[in-house]
Amino acid sequence: MSGRISQPVAGPLPCAADSVSGPVHYAAVIRPAFYRWHEGRFESARLLDVDRASLGSLGERITVIEAGDFVAVVATEPSLAALAADRLRVHWTSPDIRGNTSVESSDRVAGVLSRHYRWPSRLGWGESEAWVVADCTTHAARLWVGTATPEVLRQDLSMLLSLAPDAIELFSDRSGTGLGRLASDDAAADAAFVSQRIGLPIAIRLDPNYQRDVDALGMAQRWVVRGWGEGAAPERLALKTASPGAAPVVALMLTRPECREPAGNSSAERASPYVGAHPEADDAPDGDDTPRLFAEESFLDEWADERQRDPLELRLELMEDTRGKRLIEAVRERAQWRSPVRHRDRARIPVEGLLHGRGFAYCHVPNVQDSLEAGTRAAWIADVAVDPVTGEVALSRVVVGQDAGAAPDEIALGKALEHALLKPSFPLVTQSGDFDQWGRDAASAGDPPAIDAMIAPLGTPPTTSPRLPAARIEGGTPSWRLSAATLAPGTAAIANALFDATGQRFRQPPFTPARVRAALQGEAADTRPDPGLPARRPWRRKGWLGAAASLVAMGSVAAGMMPWQPAMAPIPHPAAGLYSQAAIERGRLVAEAGDCAVCHTAGPDGETNAGGRAFDTPFGTLYSTNITPDESTGIGNWSYAAFERAMRHGVSRDGRHLYPAFPYTAFAKLSDADMQSLYAYLMTQPPTAAPAVENDLRFPFNIRGLMAGWNALYHDPKPFIPDPTRSALWNRGAYLAEGAGHCSACHSPRNAMGAEKNGDDYLGGALVDGWEAPALNALSKAPVAWTETALYDYLRGGRAEHHGVAAGPMAPVVAGLAELPESDVRAIAHYVASLLPITDTAEAARMAEATLAKSAATVDGFESGERLYNGACASCHDADTVAVFSRAETSLALNTNLHSERPDNVIQAILDGVVAPRAGGENAGEMPAFREQFSDSQLSDLMGYLRARFAPGEPAWQNLEARIGALRATAAGP
């Protein structure tokens, strides 16, 4: 099975679209079924053949690119390229995998401390979703890409395209100074190669799907650091690279086998600023010294912790360089450094829901043409705040000192650092491509860090800092150019600060939320410690929260399968400040995705989340409960363990089984981070006293203990498990749709016991509160096939061009989705698109045109209905009438409801009107109610006419008047 790495989606192209040589085409790249960069060598499955016939009629509009083991499809529209990539069948050989001959040995000799550190070939997939555009010929290349390493990319492109480096222009909104390479370079190479092959400008979407390249390329370098000595400072340090080589762009390795292994390297020995340090040169990569620096500075921090030394004092003791010492002392004074108290078992108590830590790192990059005394020195003190619930790491403050032999103005230096530092630092702690990572435009990493930049110039005491005229800032970019040394200590400083905050040592970047959470929970503390070394005790949440987490872990499997469950003790309401604002905001998004307030609020005038809304089921009437933090009638005295048991297993705090009308069958799929965040959000909302309304269920369904058997038959309490054969975008969409979004709760039919049907019936359509939730699979009755773009428009804005507006129970769903980041709504659209018979925009337009033509024909025998339509409906719904402000934007001929087997949605819309929300609080469409204007008989005549005219290929609805009467009575209420 192959993997599509680039999923084109809707979104504006960069300004490149106006600068390229021709119309932009779109590509989707298909990677080998297996590929990786392992121990300095690229290994992958090899291409056998590409079955173009698998594209069917779609092949006439698709260009397929094959070169070596590189495969891509090209189309005139993003959705068409995506559809072709899904359908194209590509066959691969089994990969040629060499055994791992490296051994990460450890020295167990007294007085020797040994650690292994790794440095990734790709730090992350990119900073944010964007289009990468390439316009290449056999003579020149122009690319628009946000690259952190432009010169490295230029060299790779030179080999890939057989062009001189000066023939390649790179346009980027980045400064080009980063802490590591991003997979945006791989997207750029993909686009450039395809563009040169077909002679047209190519756009490829850079999104979390490129995380697959990050995962495949893995750790490019492995450093072994050893220290000898029984005293407070090591007598000797040795640094050795055990696995050399940085992976070039994937397209280069797929198209040119000679580039699958790095060329021999004879770099000179790297100098160290510390006495007794001996970096070894064998096969060390040229150029970027950041990996070596990360290993050395992390090791010194570990040595200081082992010996309970101040890490700054340790470095000063190991240095003879006067300028370096002066810089460290100046940075220490500026940051008001205090020696950390580091005990392995110290309690780390969150402050305002966050764990705080501080780390230091230093770097000296000498000028190779001069003596060791020359060159640039840089020192960092980084402050981080770690959210133990979400795993997010926020860089809160950075004190950066530099000694370059000159003294530019501090303010100008600060602006230059801010420009170069902020974006490159983010991939260190975000963008892991995790399925439960919320979009950047909502749950962001927080406010930008405060940057305190300083210069300790030659001959100037460290406590003074002369001010010179500010450097010019042109176009928002500081004109003062930073040296690579300025940012080089950043990764080690952040890693050391993370250790100070959490007690966990991260020996390889990036420090993503998933890795941080795993380390805090003691599940995969990472970090690839030497074999046999004792693990540091992980940070544990204290008090009731820690006990709750342990209790849930022990009882997770059998919790919902016993007829009688024990009650969980009530707790005092969680203290203010227990959770961070970031965790609370994340919980708000989970609640919006799950429509919590919609079900737990009794009508438009009810108190939010206070419960009391009635749900009519085949087994009787159920009422939603109070989920505000009121301690007597709500969940204010629920522990997290009790909350999670209810959400995952359907068992209340008092031990009673819940009914699956509360969709715990879907909420069970939430990740731990999202579950805790939701709890944090609900516990910080205003409490409302509202006693529960008793359910009215028939025997034997009123016996709650029977739900234990139901759970055993129909409920899987395991959290969501991503599909490794699917893209990051698909998995994110599946997680949201199947978990918090609980789409199947409404869109899947149920069996006689009220359980959702699976298989072909999954998302096959159902009735909810008198409305039909249409099928979201191959059973869809939409007259025009959906496109992924149309799905996004519908979910984001409440309206799709060829499908109409969201109404009924779907309207509040769209309103909730409007609160979510755009990228998350796109992910849901992508997932749903994989279940529906999807087409491209051009084909959808042709289908719509044919459907509209059919509706233009005159229908006989419906004169009464036609008169009602002309009098009440035509002014808004007919295109040839006089224009009015409230004209419907979508013809009724394209409305799925008129093509459905059931008339319910049309009846409900006419009786009670439509208000379709749009992101931003506006309405995508609105129709008045006609409950009082039409009798049942008149409405039956009108609907008969609507069906005959706008869905002429569908059979007439039967027993309309009776169904109208039933829904009128139900909707009217008591």
Can you tag this structure with a few keywords?
Aldehyde Oxidoreductase, domain 4, 8-stranded mixed beta sheet, 4-stranded mixed beta sheet, 31 helices, 31 strands
What is the helix fraction of residues, given as a range? 25-40%
Terminal Cα separation, in Å?
57 Å
Oligomer state equals single chain
| Category from helices, strands and their pairing | alpha+beta
Total number of strands: 31
Question: Given the C-alpha coordinates, what overall shape results?
Answer: globular
Query: Helical segment tally?
Result: 31
Please characterize this protein's 3D structure:
The protein is of the alpha+beta class. 32% of the residues lie in helices and 16% in strands. The strands form ten sheets. Strands 1, 2, 6, 7, 10, 11, 12 and 13 form an eight-stranded mixed beta sheet that branches. The protein has a four-stranded mixed beta sheet with strand order 9-14-15-16, with helices on one face. It has a four-stranded mixed beta sheet with strand order 17-18-19-20. Helix 5 links the parallel strand 15 and strand 16. Helix 20 crosses helix 24 and helix 29 crosses helix 31. The longest helix is centred in the middle third of the chain and has 20 residues.
